[in-house]
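Schema walk-through. Below, the input block comes first and the output block second. Nothing else is stored per chain. Lengths vary across the set, and this one has 440 residues.
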Amino acid sequence: MASGTTLDYCELTDIGRRRANNQDAKAVLVPWSPEQYRRRGWLFVVADGMGAHAAGEMASALAVEHVPLVYEKTAARSPPLALKGSIEQANAEIHSRGESAIDMKGMGTTCTALALLPRGALVGQVGDSRAYRIRGTTIDQLSRDHSLAWEMEAHRPAGVEDAIPKNIITRSMGPHPQVAVDLEGPFPVEADDVFLLCSDGLSGQVADEEIGLLAGSLPPKQAAAALVGLALVRGAPDNVTVIVARAGANEASATTIDATPWPLTDEVPADAARRGVSWPLLGLAAASLLVALIGYGGLTTEAAVVSLGAGLAEALAFATLAAMGLLFVGSLLAALLGAIAPANGGVRVLRPGAKLGAGPYRSYSCAASAPLLDGIIASIESAADGLSSRDRDQLLDAVTEARRPVAAGDLPAGIRAAAAAIGIYRRVVEAARSDDTVHG
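--- output ---
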């Protein structure tokens, strides 16, 4: 546990049931002092690599290495700038590696990063891995999927049920020199809020309501194990990675009215921040001075006095002199002040209470219910069919034990019993794997 914090977390990854290697990766950057927490908070990162041979595995590994490293080094910047910059620099590194070797060319990875800060939770997003928040009986998806399925669902007319292709992402880190990074938040944090990051190996097999139920009801270690195990129960065709973090009292948001705004663009250095002389304003000043002198001189000539009368000629002369004099002084001052003022008017800031992005994008109730638990338990029971007789009998006994409290209306006990049954299945799967299988 980090010094001065009350957050509890667990990170877990699994190769799944059908993959030859694990192209998922994860990282947690822990604040080891209250000052570190104040400056840059916690950082959680999940990446899901793509590419032939070892390319995807390298891409995700580079993402979870460079994002925390750059974020830590640039913590003096505002959190949005540091998080966005860290993902952009990691993208550049992945692209450079991909261009340096034929078998790595075009490699890519998703990247979902969550910074848990005193002001709230800030999300950086590329791809279709996800960031969730579970609060009470509601699960919110804080990140937006960069996927074809997401785009088609967003633009599909109501009532149309066309088949949507899965696992086609529209944005990733690595294939291009630059990448667009979505920033979301900061989302205010309350004590006991649970934040969950995962690859689509989890979200593709476990419904959002089920993710919220297990992550919100169990401690992070048990929740992570149950979620990965449930994905295995349902076949786990892809690698599965999850980070579960439960905030404590010390992580509750503490935004105050005098909190410093976060710059969203870099400030111009002081020695390069001068606007320079405005020649148009100086030209206006010179022209107004010339008009004042010529006009005054013309209106005070003997011919003008005779033509207009002495009183009117004198009044017009002074009016012209005054107007042109004011224009001369104003334009001259504007030119001088513009030359010495810093050119920082383009720096955008995020003020306390404001947020970036449009999240949460989806919200579901994850309240414990008999139908929701029955669906999980039924999946466990179905998975018993492929086991040896001894393992099948043990798992079916655990399923029976899970159904008893659900039938009696003791849903919290039913959740714990279902998690225990999932644990039995996961241990059976792990025991059946060869010794050289790498899993989390």
